[in-house]
Amino acid sequence: MKYPFRGFSSPLGARNSKSFGGPPDELDRWIVRYRFGMFKALHRMRQRPWRLVGILLIICMLATVWFIPMPDETEAVQTVHTREATLMTGLQKICDHPQQVFQHFNYPLAKVPTQSILSLLPKPAAVPLLKQGDMTYDPVQNILCTVGGRVFMYVMCNQPKNEHSSLSCA
Predict the structure, then answer these.
(1) Which end of the chain is more exposed for a tag (fewer CB within 10 A), N or C?
(2) Rounded to an integer, what distance in angstroms lies between the CA atom of residue 42 and that of residue 36?
(3) What are the UniProt keywords, alphabetically (predicted)?
(4) What confidence tier does 57 reach under pLDDT thresholds 50, 70, 90?
(5) Domain map of the chain by residue range?
């Protein structure tokens, strides 16, 4: 075999057991087994370096996702994160003046409903915002709140008007 201690009776290799007074003891045998096991482990790691590189790459990717903060996508719109809305839907709660909320969802300002139409929406104290499409309007402060309300706003402002629709854009 190719191991440096093959054929020797002690772990040091060059030491002869006759000069030290007899055959190797149990400690010498244990040291030989330990060194042999370490050599095999190191030899295996040198044969398959891609495993170590792959594991380190996965750890770096997970650390990047966990530790680097993600940018805020709302730009100029004020966002309020509530525990219920974020945990239940994974969406952001956006509260601002109706013009800024519509601008956040890339709708033209001409599609913003009037205050009388928005006042038909529920008041913030009456309905908690929990799921996608929930919207409230506070007419006193002129604040429109939505949780990912892009779909509802699209339906409200871009669909043809019918007799059953109480909300429509101006």
Answers:
(1) N
(2) 10
(3) Membrane, Transmembrane, Transmembrane helix
(4) very high
(5) 1-70, 79-158
Cβ atoms of 85 and 91 within 8 Å: the answer is yes
Contacts of 90 (CB under 8 A, 6+ apart): none
Q: What angle (nearest 5°) sits at the alpha carbon of residue 154, between those of residues 151 and 157? A: 145
CA 8 to chain centre: 56
**Cα 105 from Cα 101, distance rounded (Å):** 7
Residue that the structure tokens 């908690």 belong to: 128
> Which amino acid appears at position 55 of this protein?
I
> Do residues 140 and 118 lie in contact, with contact meaning Cβ atoms separated by under 8 Å?
no
Tens of pLDDT, residue by residue over 19-54, are: 555 566 777 777 888 888 888 888 887 777 788 888
Question: What's the token pair of residue 66?
Answer: 């966990």
- Token pair, residue 121, equals 């929406």
Both tokens assigned to 125: 């104290």
Task: Tell me the β-bridge partners of 147.
Answer: 93
